[in-house]
Write a structure and sequence with these properties.
With 776 residues, the protein is of the alpha+beta class. The chain contains 23 helices and 35 strands.
């Protein structure tokens, strides 16, 4: 099949402003004086409770306000002396309040009790209660689950309020460190960034109680528990020919893991640099085998296919950063600092732009609310350096035989099986796992016995994969790939993955085993990293990370086996599978049967961009009458983030595929004033059996896609409309023009007579000639 480079599509003129939004209206309570008296009582109680806080870089008390859907910015505007510091899950805002602000609250509440309507009364109507940030509020998920250690001394990770103003942080940090010294608490490591201020402390029980009552402490939790699958099952491969190094211009891919066995005959020729970032010694060698297993998949993709063909041709050059030890034990340093050091090393020395991090913190499941830990660090670095991180959803480690036998896949609904850090990160690609094999070693040996029953069928979700979504329900994972399966023996009630895992390189190759198999989401992520790295070489010029992510999700399809498994539970399907599995058959080059159009641009806030989609006549007129014809649109952007906000991302993009008679009609539809944002979001997209997410649902993520199945010829033109609509609090963080990338995939792959590429290229060339004539 002849292939062609992907086509570039240019946007149409003009750029227009989007419809303006407004703050939501607040309905007054039925009994306003009673509501005011309730607030007075809660304020009085909260003023007493905040006196139990200790420390603080100034003398202002810290209050927890139950503001519901009210914007924290409105509270700051309506009550001078209130400083908003964080928005927490459940409709709460944490604020510092001056005496002036508290006096204003009291005076206005008194006015409401007396039947008057004070200034900003609507804010008091919306306010539900004053409260106190308690030691229990400060406890993180793992600390609540496992409690304080019974040992004399132990480690805790303490996060401070990430104050938005640098002058406040300059007061906060030395004040807290001085307090630690005075309390005799040892600091092992710290992170100081606008979105994250954290300390790893060694302390005793009495000291921990003080930390839990410190005013400037946001969260106290146990150090990370990194889950690695260490059960190694080996397979033999004989007579593998010698491996040639990759081409000099091969794309780079960095593996941040437990190191790499650099002398492995399948990996050594493709390994460019290996560094250790753990103390002491900073050894780069892989003692666990996990990093070596991940690296084989990242280097070759389908190692099983290569092994059967006895042909290993590396097209990628690997770099290795050891950031985990052999048992994934806690290092005195924060994993955030270790990962950042390693990323900066490989980026500054080699300009590496794709990084695979196959691990997760089992002590940080994402159960809603704000993003924590390593996720925010990856989001910041991805934007700063324009690099791609690929991470797994994490594994369910405590699954029982009874659950596997009787409750698969329903147990995915459980809160405990949600994503773990850093999987909720929005500017990265998160990958879940699906099963490749459904016959294990025991089942092959004793084919007539029910000795090993697979939990998942081929292409169904792996029994151990975790599910999303992320902030506000953002689609997570975005992608799935093969990561292994589990089998159960109904007689012994044993769980096994023998013969059901992903084949890859073994760190124990010196013992005669070049490859081994393992199961885990750790091994689904490098499948996607492999494709991403290859795309860097295939596309000219090399794509941004926005375009790279958009290309990957635009070529993803939900496996039929997953759709059938979750037939009546679309929500769970989305949270387990995301956009699906990447189809590599058309991602690198276009054909006459499938064409990919790409664009990269910048957009001002509260504006729209318009692209006319070139739909060729042959999409409808030629070939078989009954066949599948699709248009897929994907968009990627990389916003700045703030952990003080539930929204988390400071910039919001969305796209819609719409019909219109002309560009002028499309511009008019998106430019008319509206009373609120819901009216803007309700603009109808193209019908014709859209697959998956609505425009609003998609927009919660930073890479988003939907597919439309085309049937009858369109009577109107099709337009892709890209809209930027940032929250007000993001103005200080975003650029005037924020970057984005969009991909349009037009497919008629069941039509042997299709001429999509020829016709679409001709349409684009005709448009360009017209633009040149009119001087646009």
């Amino acid at each position: 099949m002849e292939t062609f480079p992907h086509l570039k599509i240019d946007r149409e003129q003009p750029i227009n402003e989007k419809r303006p939004g407004s703050w939501p209206r607040v309905k007054p309570p039925a009994d306003i004086p009673a509501h005011a008296r309730k607030l007075q009582r809660s304020l009085e109680l909260a003023r007493e409770e905040v006196k139990t806080d200790i420390g603080g870089f100034d003398d202002r008390p810290l209050f927890k306000l139950n503001i519901g859907s009210l914007s924290p910015d409105q509270i700051e505007k309506g009550f001078p002396g209130i400083e908003f510091i964080s928005q927490e899950d459940g409709g709460y805002a944490l604020v510092f309040a001056s005496n002036e602000a508290l006096g204003t609250f009291e005076a206005r509440l008194t006015s409401l009790v007396e039947g008057e309507k004070p200034k900003y009364a609507n804010l008091l109507y919306a306010l539900e209660a004053f409260d106190h940030w308690t030691p229990e509020d400060r406890k993180g998920w793992a600390l609540k689950r496992d409690g304080i250690s019974a040992t004399e001394e132990f480690l805790l990770d303490v996060e401070l309020w990430p104050l938005g103003r640098s002058d406040k942080r300059e007061l906060l940090i030395p004040a807290f460190e001085g307090w630690l010294a005075q309390a005799g608490i040892e600091t092992l490591d710290k992170i100081i960034f606008p979105e994250l201020i954290a300390y790893r402390l060694r302390l005793n029980l009495e000291q921990s109680e003080k930390v839990l009552n410190h005013r400037d402490v946001r969260t106290v939790d146990l150090p990370p528990k990194l889950g690695l699958e260490l059960e190694v099952l080996r397979l033999d491969i004989q007579d593998v020919p010698s491996i040639s190094p990759p081409p000099d211009d091969a794309p780079l891919l960095t593996i941040l893991d437990s190191g790499i066995a650099g002398n492995h005959p399948l990996i050594g020729p493709a390994l460019g640099d290996a560094q250790g970032f753990l103390s002491p010694g900073r050894d780069a060698h892989d003692d666990a085998g996990h990093g070596t297993h991940v690296s084989g998949i990242a280097l070759y993709g389908d190692v099983e296919e290569c092994a059967q063909a006895k042909s290993f041709i590396p097209l990628i050059r690997l770099l290795s950063g050891r950031v985990l030890d052999a048992r994934a034990e806690v290092d005195p340093r924060f994993i955030e600092n270790i990962v950042e050091e390693s990323v900066r090393y490989f980026f500054e020395r080699y300009n590496c732009r794709v990084y695979n991090l196959s691990y997760g913190d089992l002590n940080k499941p994402y159960t809603g609310g704000r993003v924590r830990g390593l996720a925010s660090t990856l989001d910041r670095l991805a934007r700063e350096m324009d690099i791609l991180f690929v991470v797994p959803t994490g594994n369910i480690m405590d699954i029982s035989f009874e659950q596997l036998a009787n409750d698969y896949p329903n147990y995915f609904h459980q809160e405990d099986y949600r994503l773990i850090d850093p999987a909720p990160a929005l500017n990265v690609l998160t990958v879940g796992s699906v099963a490749r094999w459904d016959q294990g070693l025991k089942a092959k040996r004793w084919a007539s016995d029910l000795i090993q029953l697979p939990v998942a069928a081929r292409d169904q979700p792996s029994p151990f994969t975790r599910c999303g979504g992320s902030v506000k329900g953002a689609v997570k994972p975005e992608l799935v790939a093969y990561g292994g399966n589990l089998g159960i023996d109904p007689r012994t009630k044993m769980i096994s993955n023998q013969g059901l895992g992903e084949l890859s390189t073994s760190h124990d190759f010196a013992a005669g085993k070049l490859v081994t198999e393992r199961s885990g989401t750790s091994f689904s992520a490098p499948h996607v990293a492999h494709i991403a790295a290859r795309l860097l070489k295939e596309l000219t010029p090399p794509p941004s990370m926005n375009l790279l992510r958009a290309l990957l999700v635009s070529n993803a399809k939900v496996p039929v086996a997953c759709s059938e498994l979750f037939d009546k539970d679309e929500d769970l399907l989305e949270r387990v599978v995301g956009y699906g599995m990447v189809d590599q058959s058309g991602i690198f080059r276009s054909t006459e049967e499938q064409v990919i159009l790409v664009t990269e641009s910048k957009l001002v806030n509260k504006h729209n961009h318009f692209y006319e989609v070139p739909v060729p006549d042959c999409l409808y007129k030629s070939g078989k009458r009954i066949r599948r014809r699709e248009i897929t649109v994907a968009l990627g952007h990389c916003p700045p983030i703030r952990t003080t906000r539930i929204d988390y991302k400071a910039s919001r993009f969305m796209f819609r595929l719409v019909e219109a008679d002309s560009l002028a009609n499309a511009v008019e539809a998106f430019g008319k004033p509206a009373q609120d944002e819901e009216a803007m979001d309700s603009i109808r997209e193209l019908g014709c059996n859209k697959i998956h997410y609505s425009a609003t649902k998609r927009s919660y993520g930073t890479v988003q896609a939907s597919t439309w199945v085309m049937k009858a010829p369109r009577k109107k033109k099709l337009y892709l409309v890209v809209t930027r609509n940032d929250p007000a609090w993001g103005d200080a963080l975003t650029n005037t023009e924020e970057k984005y990338a969009a991909v349009i995939r037009i497919s008629d792959r069941e039509n042997e007579e299709a001429r999509l590429y020829t016709e679409i290229r001709a349409q684009l060339q005709a448009r360009e000639r017209l633009r040149q004539r009119v001087g646009v």
